[in-house]
Amino acid sequence: MKTNTVLCRIAGLGLGLSMALGLAGAAQAIEVGGLKFDDTVKVAGKELKVNGAGIRTRFVVKVYALVLYLPEKKSTPADVLASPGPRRFTLGLLREVTGDELGQAFLAGITANTDKAERSKFVNQLAQFGDAFVSISAGKKGDVITVDWVPDTGTVMTYNGKPIGEPMKDVAFYNAVLKIWLGDKPVDSSLKPQLLGAKG
Known about the structure:
CATH architecture: 3-Layer(bba) Sandwich
Number of helices: 7
Pfam families: Chalcone_3
Keywords: Isomerase, Signal
Largest sheet: 7 strands, antiparallel
InterPro entries: Chalcone_isomerase, Chalcone_isomerase_3-sand, Chalcone_isomerase_sf
CATH class: Alpha Beta
CATH topology: Chalcone isomerase
Number of strands: 9
Distance between the termini: 58 Å
Protein name: Chalcone isomerase family protein
Shape: globular
Radius of gyration: 20 Å
Helix content: 25-40%
Organism: Pelomonas parva
Structural class: alpha+beta
Order of helices and strands: HEEEEEHEHHHEEEHH
Strand content: 25-35%
C-alpha cells in the first residue's frame, strides 16, 4: 500500500510539473512600457514572431508601446516593407488619447514619409484609415490597436479585439503606414532601430 501511495504521488508530481511547463510555454509574452504582448501571433493561419518593439515618446511623455510581428526577422526597412505574407503591428496605449488625435498623428507621419504621387495612389484608403480612428472616442491606457496585413484581404484593424473600419486593399498603403516609424523621417528616431531588432 505504501509503495502504491508513493508511486501515485510521484506520478502526480510528474503530471503537475508537465502541466506547469506546458502552461509556461503557452504563456510566453514580452513586456513593453509595462504592457504585455504575445511573443508570437497567428495572422491568416501563419505564425508571426516579434521583429522588434519599443516605446513612442513625445516630449519625454510615453504615448504608446509598439510591437512589430513578421514571419521572419528583418533588420532593414526595405526588407520589412518587402516581407511577403501576413504582417502585424500592435500598439498599446500608455496614456489617454482620442482616436482623432491618433488618426491625425498617423496621417501626419504618412505624409512626412511619402510623396504626393505615392499618396495619390491610395487617397481613398487614407480617408478610410482616418475614419476608422473616429470610432475611438477616448482611448485609455492599456487599450490595444492591431493593424494586420492579410494577403488577398488587405489592411485589417481592430481596437481591443473588435474590428474597426473596412479592409484596405493595397499593400502599398500598409507599407506607407509602417513608414510612420520606419521611413526616412520617422516620428520617433529611437523607436525605428528597436522595431528593426536593435536592443534598447
